[in-house]
Amino acid sequence: MAEHQLGTGIQSTTAAKISASAGELNVSAGWQVHTRRRRGHLLLTQRLGGVCVAAAAVVTAFLMENGFPDALQSQAQGIVNLPWLVLNTLFSTEFRPYAALLLVAPLVQLVTAQWLRLYTVSRTHIVPFGALGKIFRCTALITAALYVLGMAYEPLTVESAAKISGLYFIYVALVLLVGMLLVRSALLIGLLALQIFDFGRTRVAVLGFNKGAQELISLFSQTSSEYNLSGIITCDGDTITENAGARLLGPVDELDRIINESDLDELIIAADFATLSVEQRQTIAQTCWQMAVDLRMVAPFYPAFHTEARTEYVGSVCLLNVARTGLYAQWPQLLKRAMDIFVSLAALLVLSPLMVATALMVKLDSPGPIIFRQKRVGLNGRVFNFLKFRSMRDNNDPSIHQQYIESLIKSKQAAAVDKDGKPIYKIADDPRITRFGKFIRKLSIDELPQLINVLRGEMSLVGPRPPLPYEVEQYEDWHYKRLLIRPGITGLWQVGGRSRLSYDEMIRLDVQYIENWSLWLDVQTLFKTVPVVLRIGDSY
Q: I want to staple 501 with a disulfide (CB 3.0 to 4.6 A). Which of 229, 335, 497, 518 is the partner?
């Protein structure tokens, strides 16, 4: 009963404050509706644009294959006659084999673009030409689907000479690629132009000041952000520094006044919920609801995980379900494993002559085994035998590397500098390396036996490098996340800097890979590895 009276009192107080500023609230509510509609309009316009491009690609490719009529040689004539040209083309006998594609292409484009999330636009960093990779993949999939349909569809009334040729689908791909890129980019450039003049931006405030709030403030301050940051709302115990990057709006107890004065569209709660009392949480939610302000909150597991989450109800209790995305999900793991097996088998067959020659040179260069076996830590902390062509003298002293690792993790100091004074986070002149060992290390040939580790399932083609047991002993808490997946032969830090990156930078790239994994990312990383390996001066 007391709780009911408390809730009623809070609601009545808030309602009274709202009534006192009814005129201002109507403006805020109207703007909020406008902001939501603008996001919906952008998504709808992108979809309509993509559908139109797909339909236009079918017709344009037909005209490109069969030759444009003389009427379009002159620009003036072309503009006037273009509608008639399209109508005549659609109803011509020659176009009959392509009619089915004209009906199917828009649907295939819509489904494919939605599946690849081509229409997804970041609210904090709008990049007009940033989706070129997605557009290329979307074009390839649409063209492949249309090719299969086109080859399967053979009307009985059409002569064999009039059937669809392979050249036609090349033209379709070109028109799709250019058309989708221009439509999407033009829309986003227009959106950026509006935001430069502060039209249509979402006015937002951040409640609380912690690591999550600081990252949001940094993102909202970008010119390409859809958000217009009004400032920070403080909770009890918050300490705001002078260089916070946003102005102080006031305490949470004055939320209704802050919403009115700043004309907020959205409030993001970044504060730890333990710092807010039950009454404050109720007041925040009710005030935002009654004043037409969107309410969002930073996930409680930030920054430990960067994964998708959705709400679901168990009875009347609202739960936050953290999705198993990327490499944590089952199907991606199966796809990645299948690619590992296929590519490693093919690589072993192709590279077998090089591996035989390397094995012979290792044996002739210095006494000792050809293959160097070393205990490394793999998936879930399991130890396995890591294989390499031996590039060091047999029975060498491992204390040199052990001291280096300890210094690298704890003191974060580079082991050496190059001739330009840039730091090198690796032992540059290791006395244990043989003459031939230096050569195969320069070209990363010593890593080739790890393809056998990949076939065994101990490693993957792409992933974090497997650490040594004494390296893991020096780990900080957040470093252990890189042991949640199979280690790899190559990875983001190998193609992004190799020995030029500090240990923490390397770990961050590994974590970024785990959280943003896709099969396409693996393919890109493998292709980027080739020029990096050939850039001999970057390896030690």
A: 497
Give me 225's structure tokens: 């952000």
Q: How far is it, in rounded angstroms, from Cα 169 to Cα 176? A: 10
Strands (E), 202-265: 202-207, 227-234, 248-251
Cα 481–Cα 487–Cα 488 angle in degrees, nearest 5? 130
Question: Do 365 and 396 meet the contact criterion of CB atoms below 8 Å apart?
Answer: no
| Per-residue pLDDT tens digits for 96-146 | 778 888 888 999 999 999 888 888 777 777 777 878 888 999 999 999 998
Strand pairing of 294-297 and 266-269?
parallel
Query: Does residue 496 contact residue 479 with C-beta atoms inside 8 Å?
Result: no
Q: Are 355 and 452 in contact (CB under 8 A)?
A: no
- In angstroms, the CA 93 to CA 307 distance is 53
The class (CATH top level) of 201-298 is alpha beta
- Going by C-alpha positions, the residue among 185, 182, 41, 43 that lies closest to residue 114 is 43
Helices H / strands E in the chain, number of each: 17, 13
Q: Domain boundaries in the chain?
A: 29-196, 201-298, 330-538
